[in-house]
Amino acid sequence: MVLPIYVYGSQVLRKIARDITPDYPDLEKFIADMWDTLYESDGIGLAAPQVGRDVRVVVIDLNEISDRFPEYKDFRRVFINGHIVESGEETDTSEEGCLSLPGVHENVTRPTRIRVKYVDEQFAEHDEWVDGYLARVIQHEFDHLEGVVFSDRISPLRKQLVRGKLKGLAQGRFKCGYKCKIQ
């Protein structure tokens, strides 16, 4: 089932998400709904707060960009209880957009290498270093779990320039091709 994506200004996007246990109600269905929502909105990553739940669940599918990044062919993964525990010193600046901020695209500087801990759908533990474009996507999605949106990470000057767009989003003045909700 396709869920509505909560847009900038929604309270749930500012909450710190909580870890869950294997007995989280209807977890398998919730993850399936997140995949449906991701594909319906043509995204590559989606965090649970973006669909109104303050839990640490993220889905990422990078197959869509495998023409530019062949190493991500068939990459599809669920991250539960994900946390970034370490970051490398080298950074990169690249344009980002977000399903919760339709129409807003800005350059964001992030570490190029991170260490993440998470569990998968079977609650098997993972502790790994990630680099490249996947590191950027994970940081973007895990930011949602911390109540952060990418516009929080842009320069003060750029933030001033997009303030009107952000205010419009929060007031429901936007158009997008997927189901949205403001709360």
Provide the fold topology.
Layout: E1 5-6, H1 27-40, E2 45-47, E3 57-61, E4 76-87, E5 91-96, E6 106-111, E7 113-119, E8 125-131, H2 132-145, H3 156-170, E9 180-181
Parallel strand pairs: 1-9
Antiparallel strand pairs: 2-3, 3-4, 4-7, 5-6, 7-8
Oligomer: single chain
Number of strands: 9
**Secondary-structure element order, N to C:** EHEEEEEEEHHE
Low-confidence stretches: none
Major β-sheet annotation = 5 strands, antiparallel
Structural class: alpha+beta
Mean pLDDT rating = 97
* Helix amount: 10-25%
Cα-based radius of gyration, to the nearest Å: 16 Å
Overall 3D shape = globular
**How far apart, in Å, are the first and last alpha carbons?**
20 Å
Query: How much strand content do the residues show?
Result: 25-35%
Count of helical regions = 3
**Cross-sheet strand order for the largest sheet:** 2-3-4-7-8
Question: Your description of this structure?
Answer:
- The protein is α+β, with helices and mostly antiparallel strands.
- 23% of the residues lie in helices and 27% in strands.
- It has three helices and nine strands; from the N terminus they run E-H-E-E-E-E-E-E-E-H-H-E.
- The longest helix has 15 residues, at 156-170.
- The chain is globular, with a radius of gyration of 16 Å.
- The two termini are 20 Å apart.
- The mean pLDDT is 97.
